[in-house]
Specification:
6 helices, mainly beta, binds zinc ion, 9-stranded antiparallel beta sheet, 6-stranded antiparallel beta sheet, 43% strand, 325 residues
């Protein structure tokens, strides 16, 4: 492993981590061209320093290191960013929901810190890269308080409890802590989230895993963390304007997510501790610190604090995530 390095590093590319899931499919291979393990694969952890899937760096002076190690040993490349409780704060995934995910809810930092050994809470968001005709998602719920929520769960009144909305290619959904949610069959999304894995499962469609068991539910914790004041959304339409190819999708205390569409060239000043870039359509290149990197659908990279101005070229669409100002 490289102790030191010469000159600006600018960028790191990583090997994605693929996660089998009972609801997964094969689109990460057929749509994105990744080489994936056999069976239903639900998740591609594209930029991750989380212990459950810590990406290995490919090429450059840090080849073979994991992202968490680069973060721990070379924080200067991240502008000495503190992170979230000291950890690399974001996690970028692609999710292929061939079947429906369990209905779930995530805690906020305070609840997770208290009840999950100091873990982070989880805030996430989904950019819909593809949705099948007629596909839906679950986002939000209709109970007014924990008592009502528990009653409806115990009675199995899912249609009454859960807020289901149609989902289309190009939609975007912010999922705050306390929001009951589930991706349903026929959706492919890029997810930006806090680097946390704490999920409370409300309902799993009574599915049985290959080993004959059902996945655990967490009704008590769910009742505790659901945010009963939230008004569930009616759709996922992006209403923010597109300016010079850039559309701001979400700006929250944990991250900012933009969509950037390049047609020709596009310059982006990398002024944050780091910048996560995921190409989900088309192809082109990025020139960073004098080196040109080819990009195509399925390319992800992390631009470091010394990247300077990134010169994109080609015809491609990207999701770009960074910390708030
Ligand atoms: Zn979730």
């Amino acid at each position: 492993m490289a102790e030191g390095y010469e000159g600006p590093v600018g960028v790191v590319f990583m090997k994605p981590v693929f996660v089998p899931k009972i609801w997964g499919g094969r689109k990460l291979e057929t749509e994105f061209g990744y080489t994936i393990p056999d069976g239903p694969i639900g998740e591609c952890w594209a930029i991750s320093a989380h212990p459950a899937g810590d990406c290995e760096i490919v090429g450059g002076p840090f080849a073979g290191m994991h992202l968490s190690e680069l973060w721990d040993q070379h924080r200067e490349l991240f502008a000495d960013c503190e992170g979230d409780h000291g950890k690399f704060p974001l996690l970028i995934k692609i999710l292929d929901a061939a079947g429906s995910l369990s209905v779930q809810v995530h805690p906020d930092d305070e609840y997770a810190g208290k009840h999950e050994n100091g873990s982070l809470g989880k805030r996430e968001c989904w950019y819909v890269v593809h949705a099948d005709e007629g596909a839906e998602i679950i986002i939000g719920q209709h109970a007014k308080n924990a008592t009502e929520f528990r009653q409806m769960v115990e009675a199995g009144e899912w249609d009454k409890l859960l807020n289901k909305v149609p989902v289309h290619t190009g939609d975007f959904f912010g999922v705050l802590p306390g929001t009951v949610h589930a991706l349903c069959a026929g959706t492919l999304v890029i997810e930006t989230q806090q680097s946390s894995d704490i999920t409370y499962r409300v309902y799993d469609y009574d599915r049985v895993q290959p080993d004959g068991t059902k996945r655990q539910l967490h009704i008590d914790q769910s009742c505790d963390v659901v945010d009963y004041r939230q008004v569930p959304p009616k759709d996922g339409k992006v209403r923010a304007p597109e300016v010079d190819g850039v559309t701001e999708l979400m700006d929250c205390p944990k991250f900012v997510v933009d969509r950037i569409r390049v047609d020709g060239t596009h310059q982006l000043e990398q002024k944050w501790p780091f910048l996560c870039v995921s190409v989900y359509e088309g192809e082109g290149s990025a020139t960073i610190c004098g080196t040109t990197y080819p990009l195509r659908k399925g390319s992800h990279f992390l631009a470091l604090s010394d990247a300077g101005t990134i010169e994109f070229a080609g015809k491609m669409s990207m999701i770009v995530s960074h910390l708030p100002e």
